[in-house]
Write a structure and sequence with these properties.
single chain; alpha/beta; Quinone Oxidoreductase, Chain A, domain 1; Rossmann fold; 2 domains; seven-stranded mixed β-sheet; six-stranded parallel β-sheet; 25% strand
Length: 338
Amino acid sequence: MIQVVLQNPGKFEITEGAEPRQGPGEALVRVHRLGVCGTDIHAFNGKQPFFSYPRIVGHELGLEVIDPGGEPNGLRRGDRCSLEPYFNCGRCIACRRGKPNCCSELKVFGVHVDGGMRPVISVPARKLHKSDRLTYDQLALVETLAIGAHAVERADVGKEEFVLVIGAGPIGLGVIQFVMARGAAVAVMDVAETRLDFCRRQMGVTRTLSPGPGAADILREFGGGDLPTAVFDATGNPRSMAAAFDLPAHGGRIVFVGLFQGEVTFNDPNFHRRELTLLASRNALPGTFRDIISLIEAGRIDTAPWITNRLALQDIPRRFPEFAGDPAIIKTMIDVGD
């Protein structure tokens, strides 16, 4: 079986791998679609935390069940599924308190363990979320949406709030989607005009801006004199994350959705004067996946415009560098097999 391995930063290679062995509680599945995530790009560029090489990456997956396994799990051969790629222990305090997304022994598929850049994989059946109606493209985008949805849940965004989302990549778009679904007013900040234009054209965002010294003044204009009460940073850029402390209203909150290898510093008097709340958001919860599938099935979320580029699995070593640093690309979808 062929597989695509990220041997070291900047180098994908096609190799021959063993057929997966199905363990207890696991389902054997065929990979049809694989979305390229910021995590994959960071790993390719050598900037992904919690990562080691070589690694088979890929965790945004549209899957078909080949063998549901011997234990009752509600799956049948031929079911189409999305993967919740966060493999938790079920024993630690986070798992016991209903937060498996930040399990102390968490293994993320395609990050800590080999992922989906191969035709067939074996995964825990309990991590599969099926749909009789969604396409493989849609199923592969559920995880991206789940990251944004969980971040909005963390901030508990209310209907009358004014919210800023920094970074209009796929994760930021997911945040925007769920902020808008809650009825809040949203502004979007990005360095790339192409992405701001996408937000205006495809998502109906009317308040967009670029980062810079005058950003706070522009936000006050957008907010009728007030700064946003919630600021989401989905860039994973240390300068952007540090600058985010100057943008929330007094009593507001900041949610770091993106991450990077390093430290974030901020001015403590500014932080205390505004009595800001700082939140980290990691991964998503199982219920979030089920909710998003229902929303897409009901037609309330349309991810089709997000897919701006496609390539085949065997073309990854040659073509991936094209997509690794192009801000005009929203989402690249890899066709693994049909």
